[in-house]
Amino acid sequence: MKFVVKALDLLVASNVYVSFGALLLTWVSLDIRHIRHPELLGFVFFSTIFIYNFIRLIRVHPMLIEGNSARHEIIFRYSVFLWILCFVSCLSACYFFRFIYKSLWMYLLPMAFVSVTYVLPVFKTRLGWIRLRDIPCLKIFLIAFTWAMVTDGLPALIHDQKLDFLTLIERFLFILAITIPFDIRDLRFDNTNLRTLPQVYGVRKAKWIGIFALLIAELILAYRYFFEGNLNLWGAVAIYLTYEFSALLVYKSHPKLHERYFTLGVEGMTIFMGLVYFLQKVL
Predict the structure, then answer these.
(1) Cβ atoms of 266 and 245 closer than 8 Å
(2) Domain extents for the chain?
């Protein structure tokens, strides 16, 4: 069990875990549209590994100073390996980009800009240079918007289909909800100027905001199933179960919970959706 736990910790610290979630969400969106595009899946997987590792490796030293964390200690201990993984993932993402750039380059540029400026201080204010994530109230909405565009927007655009704003809003609300527990976890470390939802409204109200977001996502899911006809019954049930389990995890979130509750449990809801959706297809 110790080996399994350490292996999972490394998967989390190396961001392979979260990237697998991004891949599965993208696959679900492709499958609902009856599109098969392994090159897009490869690009999403490797670009997510690259971006997340780049962000974490750049910030690992200040994170360790802000507060002791097992995840940050693993990142610091394996930093050489993670830099190599970051480099290899960047090359792999570039390889898969060759197959999709003609369709998506104009949509990928803004997301690449957001990803880079999220961690690098490129905006000058009267108080000095700041990163995009330092702008009050913005961080969680940037994360939810980027994930929604990557995992649901790109699958629509890859074959010149129109963006489906209902599915985008549904995916945005899902990611927003499962990001709130991480702001709850980081209450002890986040600068108060960030104005995260738990800082502004408190832990209890922030959790209810997440649960309400999931409720709206479920209503959109029901509308899509009954009135748009692009989802079969069991596919809709698989996504609905993910929202229900996510609501439970959001409700149980607390700043003093073990870090694996968030990194394996809450973050694993993206993987859970993909696996349950896959099971309903093969059973």
Answers:
(1) no
(2) 2-282
